[in-house]
Amino acid sequence: MEKFSIRASVIFAVAFSLFTSKTSSSRIWKVSAFGIRLDGARKPSPPYSLQKFRRKQTIIFGKNNYKQIAHSKLFQAITLNDTGGASEERERSKLGGVPIISRNIPIDIKIPTESSESHLRNNNDTRKGMIRKRFDITIWEMEKPSELIQAWWTFDESERQATGDPFGTVMWPGSILASMEMMRQHYIRDFSQTYMSEQHETSSKPPFKNATVLILGAGTGVEAQTAALLGAKKVVATDINQFTLRLLDYGAKRMVESYQNVFGKSMSGVVEAHYFDIFSETPLPESDIIIAADVLYNPELAAQVGRRIYEAISKNDTIPKLIVTDSQKFHGTDFLVGVKELKELSSLLRERGLEELQWEMRQLSQVRGSGVLVDEDQTYDVDVRMICWGWDIQ
Questions:
Q1: What is the rounded distance in angstroms from the CA atom of residue 228 to the CA atom of residue 251?
Q2: Per-residue confidence (pLDDT) for residue 154, from 0 to 100
Q3: Which of 29, 147, 202, 237 could form a disulfide with 218 if both were Cys (CB 3.0 to 4.6 A apart)?
Q4: What is d(CA 107, CA 136) in angstroms, rounded to the nearest whole number?
C-alpha cells in the first residue's frame, strides 16, 4: 500500500472546482538529481470529471477521510475569498529555476508570571505579570504550488516515490502552533531560572539551549528556525521531498544572515536539512527534543509516526521531549488509539510514574497561508490538536 506523507487537508475539496473545469495548459515537472526542476515544455491538462475526481480521492484517502475533508471547518474557511488582513511585503527569488516567494510568520506569545514590571526587560508588553516574546520567522514557499501539485497527480507511483509529496512546499498551521509551544516551554523555564533561582532552588533550565532538536516532516522550516533562535546547538530538519529540503535550507541560511548580529554569535550550520523516510528501517537520529507538526495525513502515516514516538521514548537512554500538532484531524489518524505500540508505551509510562501522552485542543485565529490550488493567499481560523509531553522530566 502506498505510503504517502500527504500534507494537504484541503487538496481534494478545493480541487473539485479546478479539476472539473480545467482546460488550460500546465507545466511539466520532472525529477533531477537536485530535486524538482521545471521543464520548458508544456502540455494540455486532461479534463477531470466528477466521477474521476471521486475515484482518485477514494484511492488516496478512503471514503471516510474525504467526507471529513469536505465538511471540515478548515475547508469551509479556506474556500472563502480572502477578506483582508494586513498587507505583507514579500520577496521573490528562484531556486533551481523555480519561482519562490517569502512569507513572514510572526510567532508571538505572552507568558503569565508573578513578576513585576521590572522583570519585563527586552519586552514591550506593559501589562503587569506578562512577558511577551516574539520571533518573526521568514520561510520560503513555492510561489505557485498548484502547478506542481496538479502535475504530481499525473505521476505514476515510481515518480511519486522519487519526488516525495509536494505539499511541504508551503507552510501549514500546525507549524505555527508547534513553534508557539516551543517558545512557551522554553521561556517559562528561562524566566524561572533567571528570576526565581535567586530566591528559590530550581532545576528548570531553558530546554532548547544547546539542545539537539529533531523535526519530522519539517516542510518549509518554521519550527527549525524557531528552534535555532531559541538556542539549539543542532537542528536536524527532515523531510522526504528534496525540493522542500532545499526551500528549508534556503530560508535557514537567510535567517542566519538576519539574526547573527542580534545574538552576538554565528548560527551558521545549526539547521541541517536531511532526507529521512520514517517508513525506512533507519533508526531515528538521537535528539533531546522531537517536533512533528502537521504530518498525520493518512492512517498509515499517522500510525508510523506513533511507532517512531514509541521508539524514541522506550528505546533511548535519554527520554526526548515531544511536541506533535495536527490541524487536519483526518479520520483514523489518532495514533494514540490505533497503534499497538502506543498502548504498550502507556503501560510503560505508568510503571515509571510518568504522564501518559494525550491530545489537547488549541485554536489559531486569522492564519494566513497559501491557497494551495489557487494562487491567492487565504485567511482562516482552525482548531489544532497537540501532544506536548516530557517537558518536566529532568
A1: 12
A2: 84
A3: 237
A4: 6
CA 160 – CA 341 distance, rounded (Å): 29
Nearest-angstrom CA–CA distance, 274 and 11: 26
Residue pointed to by grid coordinates 514591550: 124
Q: How far from the centroid of its chain's Cα atoms is residue 88's Cα?
A: 21
- Residues in the chain, how many? 394
| Rounded CA separation 339/324 (Å) | 16
Is the distance from CB of 356 to CB of 336 less than 8 angstroms? no
Contact 180, 364 (CB under 8 A): no
pLDDT at 263: 61
**Sheet of 92-95: strands edge to edge?**
92-95, 98-112, 130-142
Give me 222's grid cell: 518554521
φ and ψ at residue 4, rounded to 5 degrees: -95, 135
CA 297 to chain centre: 12
Q: Strand 378-389 to strand 321-326: parallel, antiparallel, or no bridges (unpaired)?
A: antiparallel
What pLDDT is attached to residue 192?
60
C-alpha grid cell for residue 117?
Answer: 514590571
| Contact criterion met (CB below 8 Å) for 291 and 326 | no
Residues 6+ apart with CB under 8 A from 239: 164, 168, 217, 218, 219, 245, 248, 273, 275, 276
Residue with cell 494514540: 336
Between CA 361 and CA 238, with CA 284 as vertex, the angle to 5 degrees is 70
Q: How many helices (H) and strands (E) does the chain have?
A: 12, 12
Q: What are phi and psi of 105, to 5 degrees?
A: -125, 105
Give the separation between CA 186 and CA 166, rounded to whole angstroms: 32
Q: What's the whole-model pTM score?
A: 0.76
**In whole angstroms, what is the distance from residue 35 CA to residue 243 CA?**
5
The torsion region of residue 269 among left (phi > 0), alpha (psi -120 to 50) and beta comes to: left
Distance CA 312, CA 315 (A): 6
- Contact predicate 257/225, CB 8 Å: no
Which segments of the chain have a pLDDT < 50?
1-87, 115-126, 197-202
Picking from 181, 3, 105, the residue whose alpha carbon sits closest to that of residue 369 is 105
Query: Which are the contacts of 285, defined by CB distance < 8 A and separation ≥ 6?
Result: 214, 236, 238, 274, 276
- pLDDT of 271 reads 96
